Amino acid sequence: MTLMPRDTAETLALQALAWLAGNEELLPVFMGATGSSQDELRAQAGQPEFLASVLDFLLMDDAWVIACCDALQQPYPQLMQARAALPGGAQINWT
């Protein structure tokens, strides 16, 4: 798998964050899970580590991935590829 360029990954993660912010059912779940306030969401939106946490959250449920990718008109693997390109996203190979 070719690694997605980091700026492309950050752009996709920002789009995912915007989708999440517009989701009245899922946004409170994310905020509760991360302990983030709306002000913190706005302040940290440009931070690669925060964007990685958005993708980590969405990747926890296939239905969230599907809904987000459908809304953003992206192939389903794109969120995982974006996550791999952001800080802490390198997959560990145990072999």
How would you describe what is shown here?
The protein is mainly alpha-helical and 95 residues long. 65% of the residues lie in helices and 0% in strands. It has one domain. Helix 1 crosses helix 5 and helix 4 runs antiparallel to helix 6.
Question: Could you write a compact summary of the structure shown?
Answer:
The protein has 95 residues and is an all-alpha fold.
Task: List strands and helices in order, with pairings.
Elements: H1 6-21, H2 26-34, H3 38-44, H4 48-58, H5 62-72, H6 78-85
Ends distance: 17 Å
How many distinct folded domains? 1
Average pLDDT: 90
Order of helices and strands: HHHHHH
Q: In terms of structural class, how would the helical and strand content be classed?
A: mainly alpha
Give the CA-based shape: globular
Count of helices?
6
Residues in β-strands, percent:
under 5%
Low-pLDDT sequence parts: none
Radius of gyration: 13 Å
Estimated helix fraction:
55-70%
The largest sheet, given as strand count, sense and whether it forms a barrel, is: none
Number of strands: 0
Throw out a few tags for this protein.
single chain; 65% helix; 95 residues; mainly alpha; globular
